[in-house]
Amino acid sequence: MLMLTLLLAIGLVGCDGAVKIGWVSNSYPGTIKARFRRFDGTQSQRVKAKEGEYLSLSCSADLERGSISVSVVGPDKATISTIEAGAEETTTRVDITRTGTYRVVVTGEGAQGNFHVTWRIEDGSTDG
User: Which residue range is the domain that position 107 belongs to?
Assistant: First the structure.
């Protein structure tokens, strides 16, 4: 019985320490979306970008409880921008000031529901 309890605990907590119960996700370049009964932790994806470009980020969430935030983390591991995901789609633009690998990080805190995050890298010379 103790072994079964340990196996269940390991199955609910990922290697990164995130708790994901009932987690069903679909992630591909430029998109992370998931639905879940409980999400405490992070889900991320790497993005390569060049100085002078910008990252256009949109997110929304339909939550029964808890919160979802989305951050852009730079090559130096510093958080550049964070937005809260809500029922209405939120969009932000992050200027890329250094060529490198960035991360889009979705953070759940006691969340139940779903989220949808999309982004794209755009040429900074086309203001609009």
Answer: 2-122
